[in-house]
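Quick one: structure for this chain?
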Amino acid sequence: MHFKTVAIVGRYQDSGLDAPLRRLAGTLRHAGCDVLIEADTGRNTGVAEYPLASFEDIGRRADLAVIMGGDGTMLGAARRLATSGVSMIGINHGRLGFITDIPLDSADEAVASILNGGYEPDERILLEGRVMRGTEEMYSGLALNDVIINRAGRGGMIELRVQFNGTFMYSQRADGLIIATPTGSTAYALSANGPILHPQVEALVLVPVAPQTLSNRPIALPDDGVLNITIRALGRVESGASIHFDMQTWSNCQEGDRIDVRRSPHRVRFLHPTGYSYFSTLRSKLNWNRMLQPWHDPDTDTDTD
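Got it. Here's what it folds into:
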C-alpha cells in the first residue's frame, strides 16, 4: 500500500455526482485506504458517510487526493494543495480534460492500479504573481495554468510594458497578455494561437491577445526568470483591466500598476496510470487523428492510443 489516507474532491455542482463518488470511495476503502471527503463536496452531494475535511486538513492528513470533475476543479484543488505536496489523480467528469485525464468509466481500475504502485509521476510548475501599486502589494496568487492581464468590459485596448529579468522586451497595445506554463499552453494560450509546450520543457510562454500590431507574436522564455508587466494606459476613460490567476480574478487595476510573475517554488505532482502518454492525450483531445492524409490506411496503421 503506497497511500494510506486518500481524499476525494469533486465538482459538486454536477448533478448525479454522488453515485460515482460513492463508488470511488468504496474502491478506496476496499483497498484498505482511509477515505476523506472534501467538505464542500460532501455537503453538496450528500456523501456524508465518510469524514469531511477542509483543504487544510487534506494537506496535513492525506497521502493522495483524487479529483473528480473537469480541469477547472483540478486547477482549484492544485492551488489549494500545492504547498502541502499531496499527489493528485484526475478523473474526468467534465468535457475536455487535459489534466483530469482518467475516463470515468475506467476510474476504478486505474485508481486500484495506482494504489498498488502502477503509476507514472508528472510534476508541473506553478506561477506566483503579485500586483504592485508603488511599494504596496495589492493582490497575489498562484496559477497552474496562467496569469492573464485583460482589458475589462468593452473598454479600449490596454498598453503594457514588459520586462524580463529587468531587461526591456517590448511595449504593446492589445486586449491582453497571457503568461502560461506548459500546463496552461493547452488552455487560453492555445486559443490565442500560442504554441503547445511539453510539460518537461522548462519554459513559460507569453501570448498577446488580439494585439494592435500583428508582429507582436508569442514568445517562449526560461522559467527561472522574473517578468514585470506595467500597465501604461487603459484606453478610454471608462475602460479598465483585470488580472486572472487561473480562475481567481482581481479587477481593480490602475494605470501604473505592475504585475510581477515568476515560477513558484512549489510544484504540483500528478499521478497517471502506467502507460500514460502526453501525446496520446493531445491526439485525443485535439482530434489530431481526424486529420488523416488521403493515403492513410487505417487497417495497416500501427499507431494506436
